[in-house]
Amino acid sequence: MTEHKPKPSDYIGIFDSGIGGLTVADAIHRLLPNEALVYFGDTAHLPYGDKSPELIRTYAKEITNFLLHEKKCKAIVIACNTASAAAYELLRDTFKGTVPVINVIDPMIEAVIADDTIKKVGIIATKTTIASGTYQEKFSRRKPSLKFAALATPLLASMIEEGFYNNNISTAVLQKYLSFPGFNHIDAMVLACTHYPLIKNEIAAFFHDKIKIFDSAVVVAQKLKWILEKENLAADEKAGENVFYVSDLTDSFEKSTRIFFKGNIQLKHLPLWEKKDS
Ligand code: DGL
To answer: Does the domain made of 11-103+218-277 have the CATH classification 3.30.429.10?
Structure first.
């Protein structure tokens, strides 16, 4: 177990299947501007949303090893609902006692169940997240009185990544998904994919701005702040520059980064899998 005890640096390690998790990185950067972030987007294996949980666990473990052992991160944020659903328990147990590992699902569950005005909630996410039953199980266990309806919305992440949001294409796709009869009489919608903050306003508009919309970016940033302060790990002065790695780099990813992360960032290609795949 000693190999899992690197000396923490000042980095916060954040990963996702691709660049959607930059919405979480952006919220962390805004809330905790002193922290230095190292982001890893596994674009070589994008999308995670239709992969098996076993495969996602293999990727997540490898990325976390890189963030811990090579970048010496002091905390890990799984900025992907699909990876949180498939791999959080494995990462938490594997790296227990080293650094905090934060998933995007639990802070969202906490935020929803704390709101007593919500009687019925909708959940939209990738196929793998919905099939995992993680949100459904946690809501049922933590607040049995809460009604919920879950729907896989597999087109949304790729649609957003290709820049289709706030236009007639995204309106048509959302119209189809959100008309799901299970969503009748919901008081809130959980955006259980880190790409979806980009279409938050469109979803709110579909429901005539009458329901609450929860996305993981801000609640996860708040949870991270709370943990860093509790564990005495927060940076009290600027810890360094943020770095952004992707396992495959294309022009399209470079262009799309700006829609997910407001600052000017440069993606670096880090072929983490090359040696293993060959
Ligand atoms: N951003 C990922 C999530 O939160 C979904 C994208 C993918 O399918 O890889 O689930």
So the answer is: no
